[in-house]
Amino acid sequence: PAGDLRRDGFAAVWRQSALFAAIRAGAPGGKCGACEYRTLCGGCRARAYAAEEDYLAADPSCTYEPTGQMAVIQPTPPVTYGMQVESALRWSAAARARMDRIPSFVRGVVVKRVEDFARLRGAEAGGRLRAATRCVGGYGRSPTGGPPSDAGGFLKAETLLPAR
Predict the structure, then answer these.
(1) Could you give the CA distance from residue 125 to residue 74 in angstroms, rounded to a whole number?
(2) DSSP sequence for 42-59
(3) Distance between CA 6 and CA 118 in Å, rounded?
(4) Which of 46, 68, 70, 77 is closest to 59 using CA atoms?
(5) What is the Cα–Cα distance from 26 to 22, expressed in whole angstroms?
(6) 49: Cβ–Cβ under 8 A, 6 or more apart, which residues?
(7) Phi, psi at residue 163, to the nearest 5°?
(8) What is the spatial order of strands in the sheet that 128-137 belongs to?
(9) How far apart are the first and last CA of the chain?
(10) Which stretches of the chain score pLDDT less than 70?
(11) Sign of the C-alpha dihedral, residues 3, 16, 73, 90?
(12) What's the angle, vertex CA 87, arms to CA 83 and CA 89, rounded to 5?
């Protein structure tokens, strides 16, 4: 067994268990060890143990057959709150000013997401972002018949778009 959760708690079992340390440090065997997705997936260690009595054996339920000809795919670093982000795009002064109003603990996540969105809209590395305002939400036109506004359930959203 890996440990006693009732006595030691999850964190202690996870960090101190010889079994979990071996699983984290060991390379899986069989096709899991040759798979380009092994750093993302790793296979199910419980099924491997149930089938082979070896936690590091190949996952018997996996239908994928690695060829061994592809490089191992590495996970992308997670986006976490409070992180600093290096901008890949140049920001106009107005766009940067809008980003600076976002609380610092979440700004890095927002910058990354906005730049990802801008890339989907055609921005390239070194490209420039401009600030644009558009109205979203609400129920169509404003109660006065004009364009949507902050009144009447309409939300004004600030969007950063690739400069044209």
Answers:
(1) 22
(2) ---HHHHHHHHS-TTS--
(3) 48
(4) 46
(5) 5
(6) 55, 57
(7) -70, 145
(8) 90-91, 128-137, 154-162
(9) 61
(10) 78-81, 83, 85, 123-164
(11) positive
(12) 155
pLDDT, tens digit, for every residue of 81-117?
A: 676 767 777 788 888 888 888 887 888 878 888 888 7
Phi, psi of 88 (to 5 degrees): -90, -15
Residues contacting 108, CB < 8 A, separation 6+: 79, 80, 81, 82, 83, 84, 85
Is the separation of the CB atoms in 91 and 99 below 8 Å? yes
pLDDT value at residue 130: 60
Q: Is 8 helix (H, G, I), strand (E, B) or coil?
A: helix
> Letter for the amino acid at 15?
R
